[in-house]
Design goal:
single chain, alpha/beta, Metallo-beta-lactamase, Chain A, 7-stranded mixed β-sheet, globular
Protein backbone atom coordinates (compact mmCIF):
# COMPACT_ATOMS: atom_id res chain seq x y z
CA UNK A 1 0.00 0.00 0.00
CA UNK A 2 1.23 3.47 -0.95
CA UNK A 3 -0.22 6.57 0.74
CA UNK A 4 0.34 10.28 0.12
CA UNK A 5 -1.55 13.43 1.10
CA UNK A 6 -2.14 15.85 -1.77
CA UNK A 7 -3.39 18.70 0.45
CA UNK A 8 -4.39 19.13 4.07
CA UNK A 9 -6.06 21.87 6.08
CA UNK A 10 -8.91 24.36 5.86
CA UNK A 11 -7.73 25.44 2.38
CA UNK A 12 -8.35 21.94 1.01
CA UNK A 13 -7.91 18.23 1.63
CA UNK A 14 -7.15 15.23 -0.54
CA UNK A 15 -5.27 11.96 -0.07
CA UNK A 16 -4.10 9.30 -2.50
CA UNK A 17 -4.01 5.54 -1.80
CA UNK A 18 -2.55 2.87 -4.06
CA UNK A 19 -2.62 -0.90 -3.59
CA UNK A 20 -1.60 -3.71 -5.93
CA UNK A 21 -4.81 -3.36 -7.96
CA UNK A 22 -6.50 -0.14 -6.89
CA UNK A 23 -6.04 3.63 -6.82
CA UNK A 24 -8.29 5.66 -4.53
CA UNK A 25 -8.68 9.36 -3.83
CA UNK A 26 -10.07 10.33 -0.44
CA UNK A 27 -11.70 13.78 -0.72
CA UNK A 28 -11.22 16.36 -3.44
CA UNK A 29 -11.15 19.67 -1.62
CA UNK A 30 -8.77 21.41 -4.01
CA UNK A 31 -9.18 22.35 -7.65
CA UNK A 32 -9.26 19.61 -10.25
CA UNK A 33 -6.22 21.16 -11.89
CA UNK A 34 -4.29 20.90 -8.62
CA UNK A 35 -5.42 17.32 -8.10
CA UNK A 36 -4.26 16.34 -11.58
CA UNK A 37 -0.92 18.10 -11.15
CA UNK A 38 -0.16 16.51 -7.79
CA UNK A 39 -1.18 13.07 -8.98
CA UNK A 40 1.11 13.49 -11.97
CA UNK A 41 3.97 14.13 -9.54
CA UNK A 42 3.26 10.62 -8.26
CA UNK A 43 3.15 9.17 -11.76
CA UNK A 44 -0.64 8.83 -11.71
CA UNK A 45 -3.29 10.16 -14.09
CA UNK A 46 -6.72 11.19 -12.84
CA UNK A 47 -8.19 8.60 -15.22
CA UNK A 48 -6.32 5.90 -13.26
CA UNK A 49 -8.37 6.56 -10.12
CA UNK A 50 -10.80 3.72 -9.44
CA UNK A 51 -12.82 5.53 -6.77
CA UNK A 52 -13.14 8.91 -5.10
CA UNK A 53 -14.44 8.59 -1.55
CA UNK A 54 -15.83 11.57 0.36
CA UNK A 55 -15.61 12.06 4.13
CA UNK A 56 -18.22 14.84 4.22
CA UNK A 57 -19.71 17.63 2.17
CA UNK A 58 -17.73 20.67 3.39
CA UNK A 59 -16.02 22.55 0.58
CA UNK A 60 -12.48 21.96 1.82
CA UNK A 61 -13.13 18.25 1.29
CA UNK A 62 -15.50 18.28 -1.66
CA UNK A 63 -14.74 21.31 -3.85
CA UNK A 64 -14.04 19.34 -7.03
CA UNK A 65 -16.45 16.45 -6.55
CA UNK A 66 -18.95 17.80 -9.14
CA UNK A 67 -16.15 18.08 -11.72
CA UNK A 68 -14.68 14.62 -11.26
CA UNK A 69 -15.93 11.92 -13.64
CA UNK A 70 -14.49 8.98 -11.69
CA UNK A 71 -16.79 6.74 -9.65
CA UNK A 72 -17.51 8.68 -6.46
CA UNK A 73 -18.73 7.24 -3.16
CA UNK A 74 -20.65 9.41 -0.68
CA UNK A 75 -22.52 8.69 2.53
CA UNK A 76 -26.21 7.87 2.02
CA UNK A 77 -27.26 10.86 4.14
CA UNK A 78 -25.53 13.22 1.69
CA UNK A 79 -26.77 11.59 -1.50
CA UNK A 80 -29.31 14.32 -2.24
CA UNK A 81 -26.53 16.91 -2.28
CA UNK A 82 -24.72 15.15 -5.10
CA UNK A 83 -27.26 13.18 -7.13
CA UNK A 84 -27.83 15.92 -9.72
CA UNK A 85 -24.21 17.07 -9.76
CA UNK A 86 -22.05 13.94 -9.91
CA UNK A 87 -22.07 11.66 -12.96
CA UNK A 88 -20.84 8.33 -11.54
CA UNK A 89 -22.27 8.38 -8.05
CA UNK A 90 -22.45 5.54 -5.54
CA UNK A 91 -23.50 5.59 -1.91
CA UNK A 92 -22.22 3.84 1.18
CA UNK A 93 -23.93 3.29 4.51
CA UNK A 94 -21.92 4.64 7.42
CA UNK A 95 -21.02 1.73 9.69
CA UNK A 96 -21.13 -0.86 6.91
CA UNK A 97 -17.99 -1.98 5.11
CA UNK A 98 -17.72 -2.04 1.32
CA UNK A 99 -15.02 -2.97 -1.15
CA UNK A 100 -13.34 -1.29 -4.09
CA UNK A 101 -11.47 -4.03 -5.94
CA UNK A 102 -8.87 -5.37 -3.45
CA UNK A 103 -9.55 -2.81 -0.69
CA UNK A 104 -11.93 -3.29 2.24
CA UNK A 105 -13.23 0.11 3.33
CA UNK A 106 -14.91 0.74 6.66
CA UNK A 107 -16.63 4.13 7.12
CA UNK A 108 -17.44 5.11 10.71
CA UNK A 109 -19.19 8.10 12.27
CA UNK A 110 -17.18 10.97 13.74
CA UNK A 111 -18.44 14.03 15.65
CA UNK A 112 -18.34 17.05 13.32
CA UNK A 113 -20.82 19.69 12.17
CA UNK A 114 -21.72 18.07 8.86
CA UNK A 115 -24.61 15.86 7.70
CA UNK A 116 -22.93 12.48 8.16
CA UNK A 117 -19.17 12.96 8.62
CA UNK A 118 -17.03 9.83 8.60
CA UNK A 119 -13.55 8.54 9.13
CA UNK A 120 -12.26 5.59 7.14
CA UNK A 121 -10.11 2.52 7.49
CA UNK A 122 -8.66 0.84 4.41
CA UNK A 123 -7.43 -2.75 4.58
CA UNK A 124 -5.58 -4.87 2.03
CA UNK A 125 -2.94 -7.60 2.24
CA UNK A 126 -3.19 -7.59 6.06
CA UNK A 127 -2.27 -3.88 6.22
CA UNK A 128 -4.47 -1.15 7.64
CA UNK A 129 -4.57 2.58 6.91
CA UNK A 130 -6.85 4.78 9.02
CA UNK A 131 -7.92 8.36 8.37
CA UNK A 132 -9.68 10.58 10.90
CA UNK A 133 -9.82 14.35 10.44
CA UNK A 134 -12.53 16.97 11.03
CA UNK A 135 -13.49 15.48 14.37
CA UNK A 136 -14.44 17.47 17.43
CA UNK A 137 -13.88 14.78 20.01
CA UNK A 138 -12.83 11.16 20.21
CA UNK A 139 -15.42 8.48 20.92
CA UNK A 140 -15.29 4.81 21.84
CA UNK A 141 -16.31 3.98 18.27
CA UNK A 142 -13.48 6.08 16.81
CA UNK A 143 -10.92 4.38 19.06
CA UNK A 144 -12.27 0.95 18.22
CA UNK A 145 -12.12 1.54 14.47
CA UNK A 146 -8.61 3.02 14.54
CA UNK A 147 -7.00 0.29 16.61
CA UNK A 148 -4.49 -1.91 14.83
CA UNK A 149 -3.56 0.70 12.22
CA UNK A 150 -0.24 0.44 10.41
CA UNK A 151 -0.51 3.99 9.07
CA UNK A 152 -2.63 6.59 10.87
CA UNK A 153 -3.63 9.97 9.44
CA UNK A 154 -4.98 11.95 12.38
CA UNK A 155 -6.09 15.53 12.92
CA UNK A 156 -3.88 17.81 15.01
CA UNK A 157 -5.84 20.95 14.23
CA UNK A 158 -5.06 23.57 16.84
CA UNK A 159 -3.15 24.42 19.97
CA UNK A 160 -5.57 25.47 22.67
CA UNK A 161 -3.43 28.37 23.93
CA UNK A 162 -2.67 29.69 20.45
CA UNK A 163 -6.36 29.52 19.56
CA UNK A 164 -7.32 31.26 22.79
CA UNK A 165 -5.30 34.36 21.91
CA UNK A 166 -5.72 34.30 18.12
CA UNK A 167 -7.57 36.90 16.08
CA UNK A 168 -10.44 34.54 15.30
CA UNK A 169 -13.94 35.74 16.33
CA UNK A 170 -15.15 34.18 19.56
CA UNK A 171 -18.00 32.40 17.78
CA UNK A 172 -15.53 30.66 15.46
CA UNK A 173 -13.29 29.72 18.37
CA UNK A 174 -16.29 28.15 20.09
CA UNK A 175 -17.13 26.17 16.96
CA UNK A 176 -13.55 24.87 16.63
CA UNK A 177 -13.37 23.88 20.31
CA UNK A 178 -16.81 22.26 20.41
CA UNK A 179 -17.43 18.50 20.31
CA UNK A 180 -18.46 18.98 16.67
CA UNK A 181 -15.40 21.01 15.76
CA UNK A 182 -11.76 19.97 15.48
CA UNK A 183 -9.23 18.10 17.62
CA UNK A 184 -6.65 20.11 19.53
CA UNK A 185 -3.06 18.88 19.83
CA UNK A 186 -3.83 17.77 23.38
CA UNK A 187 -6.95 15.83 22.37
CA UNK A 188 -5.21 14.26 19.37
CA UNK A 189 -2.23 13.21 21.50
CA UNK A 190 -4.57 11.61 24.03
CA UNK A 191 -6.28 9.66 21.25
CA UNK A 192 -2.93 8.69 19.77
CA UNK A 193 -1.79 7.29 23.12
CA UNK A 194 -4.64 4.77 22.99
CA UNK A 195 -3.68 3.66 19.48
CA UNK A 196 0.05 3.11 19.81
CA UNK A 197 1.29 -0.41 19.19
CA UNK A 198 4.39 -2.05 17.80
CA UNK A 199 3.06 -2.35 14.24
CA UNK A 200 1.97 1.28 13.90
CA UNK A 201 4.77 2.38 11.60
CA UNK A 202 3.79 5.91 10.64
CA UNK A 203 1.56 8.70 11.98
CA UNK A 204 0.68 11.65 9.76
CA UNK A 205 -0.39 14.81 11.58
CA UNK A 206 -3.09 16.36 9.40
CA UNK A 207 -5.42 19.34 9.09
CA UNK A 208 -3.14 21.68 11.07
CA UNK A 209 -4.52 25.20 11.37
CA UNK A 210 -2.31 27.77 9.67
CA UNK A 211 -3.24 30.39 12.28
CA UNK A 212 -3.95 28.43 15.46
CA UNK A 213 -1.17 25.86 15.44
CA UNK A 214 2.44 25.39 14.45
CA UNK A 215 4.22 22.29 13.11
CA UNK A 216 6.73 22.30 15.97
CA UNK A 217 4.03 22.50 18.65
CA UNK A 218 1.99 19.72 17.06
CA UNK A 219 5.02 17.46 16.63
CA UNK A 220 6.07 18.01 20.24
CA UNK A 221 2.64 16.93 21.44
CA UNK A 222 2.81 13.74 19.37
CA UNK A 223 6.44 12.93 20.25
CA UNK A 224 5.71 13.48 23.93
CA UNK A 225 2.98 10.85 24.08
CA UNK A 226 5.02 8.37 22.04
CA UNK A 227 7.93 8.79 24.44
CA UNK A 228 5.63 8.44 27.44
CA UNK A 229 4.05 5.22 26.17
CA UNK A 230 7.47 3.91 25.18
CA UNK A 231 6.62 2.51 21.77
CA UNK A 232 9.55 2.59 19.36
CA UNK A 233 10.02 2.73 15.58
CA UNK A 234 7.08 5.08 14.89
CA UNK A 235 7.75 7.73 12.27
CA UNK A 236 5.95 11.07 12.34
CA UNK A 237 5.32 13.46 9.48
CA UNK A 238 3.20 16.51 8.78
CA UNK A 239 0.67 16.72 5.96
CA UNK A 240 1.55 19.91 4.02
CA UNK A 241 -1.24 22.34 3.25
CA UNK A 242 -0.59 23.02 -0.43
CA UNK A 243 1.67 20.30 -1.81
CA UNK A 244 2.04 16.55 -1.70
CA UNK A 245 3.28 15.01 1.51
CA UNK A 246 5.73 12.22 2.16
CA UNK A 247 4.99 9.06 0.18
CA UNK A 248 4.49 6.23 2.68
CA UNK A 249 4.69 2.55 1.79
CA UNK A 250 3.75 -0.46 3.88
Amino acid sequence: MRVCTLASGSSGNSLFIQTNNTKILVDAGISLRQIKSRLENLGVEISDIDAVIVTHEHTDHALSIPKIENTTYVASATLNIWKDKVRNLKEFDTGNSFTVRDVLINPFSVPHDALDPVGFTFETDHKKLSIVTDIGTSTSLVKERLRGSNILVIEFNHDEEILKYSSYPWELKQRIMSRLGHLSNRQAATLLADLLHNELFHVVLAHLSEINNSPDVALRAAYSVIKKVGVENINLSLAPRKKIGEVLTI
